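Lab notebook, bench 4. The sequencing result for the construct came back, and we need a structural model before the next group meeting so we can plan mutations. Quick request posted to the team channel:

Model the 3D structure of this chain.
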Amino acid sequence: MGQLDSLIFGKKTFSDILEEIYQNQKKRDAQVVALISELKPLVQEIGDATLIVPLIKEYMEIGVKNDDALIKMATIVQRALQNQNDDGGLGITDEEKEALLAEMEKLQSDKKA
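Done. Here's the predicted structure in token form:
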């Protein structure tokens, strides 16, 4: 469990990232159920459904994309922790480091949007 407690950046541990992925998924499930419950009474005919269902679909896709970015980041960090060198290096290539930084920047920009 030592690797789960490794600091990744700032005060964020690998365990924190995994928990964030899990909590995001649970929160999104509740939000989708609530959204559908609120919209269900508005659907009176098939035309209403064709307007509302794409909105729900888009909302769900945005959440999935955000989770995918977090999962990719967690995968890279997990590999880095497994390959950690004795000299403190992460044991990952420059391309993998760049991919990790790109994912982190993407998460930050997605959070701001």
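The longest strand covers residues 7-9.
Will bring this to the meeting.
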